[in-house]
Amino acid sequence: MAVDDAEERLDRAFTALGDPVRRALIARLSRGDATVNELAEPFSITKQAVSRHIQVLEAAGLITRSRDGQRRPCHLDPAALEALTSWIDTYRLAVEQRHRRLDAVLDRMKEQER
């Protein structure tokens, strides 16, 4: 996979997660697979609107759908979430390392003052 493809996937995923309804759908799917009807239940928006949100999540690669007889359950894609987590962790770890170094410098300064 080219770097541009990976960056495009990250862009689509983070854009998709920018909407509170889509984040709520991801949160619901983290507890298990669900159909569009099941996903739409807690929302005061139409089923069609929920379906459009699902399409955005699917296009972003965050969820997939399968066929189970008449049911078309949605599934969270853990690998896609892992890619997002990995990207975030890269920067989180760098910032934490800088903070630890700063803490060490401040601790040495305090020791020298004593």
UniProtKB/TrEMBL annotation:
| InterPro entries the UniProt entry points to | ArsR-like_HTH, HTH_ArsR_DNA-bd_dom, WH-like_DNA-bd_sf, WH_DNA-bd_sf
- Taking every annotated instance into account, which residue ranges of this chain make up the domain HTH arsR-type? 2-96
**What SMART domains does its record include?**
HTH_ARSR
Which PROSITE patterns does the entry link to?
A: HTH_ARSR_2
What CDD domains does the annotation carry?
HTH_ARSR
Q: What name does UniProt use for this protein?
A: ArsR/SmtB family transcription factor
